[in-house]
Amino acid sequence: MHEVKGAKIEAGTGVYAPAEDTLLAAEMLLRNMQGEELTVVEIGTGTGALGIIAAMDKRSSHVIMSDISEEALECARENAGLNSVEDKCEFIKSNLFDSIEGDFDIIIFNPPYLPDDDEVRSGKNWWSGGPTGIELTKLFIGQAAEHLKTNGTIITVESSLADSKALHDFIDANGFRIADSEKAHIFFEDIVALALKKKG
Fold this sequence. Notes:
Layout: E1 2-4, E2 7-9, H1 20-31, E3 38-43, H2 49-56, E4 60-67, H3 70-82, E5 89-93, E6 104-109, H4 118-121, H5 135-144, E7 148-159, H6 164-173, E8 176-186, E9 189-198
Parallel strand pairs: 3-4, 3-6, 4-5, 6-7
Antiparallel strand pairs: 1-2, 7-9, 8-9
């Protein structure tokens, strides 16, 4: 059993367990939950930890948790029940935004963010973010732009081992700005949680 910001989380077999990056993203999420009746979607929900934290907050009205994995979705459903927020949550099988409709106040994605080298491929595949570690995040941001409300916020995570400069350039080129960030040094890398907002 894991505890993340008051949420009790069980990690199922083959589902990424909450770790330091989850906690960092959770802190950034809570810091940016501003307003009332917030609609939230978590892409790649895994255990559902971040979506559940959003659902536990009284400022949220509806939380979608999506994942491409049936095992992850079942794990998230069980954890939502464990934290008594299942009535506030919806679970959708989706590859990024393929099956997601509507606009949201907050979009969350704690992506695989490590470069896909031999060492990563020989380990757990949920860490693989593509050749430079940002390919999946770039796909996400490109799609998220169509689902974010004007004053909405994207919460995501990056690693110092990935090509952060290229990611920041992509963020800027796609009409977003980094409104908030928080860094933690963990073992051999810096993990950074980002809050992105539309420019203007």
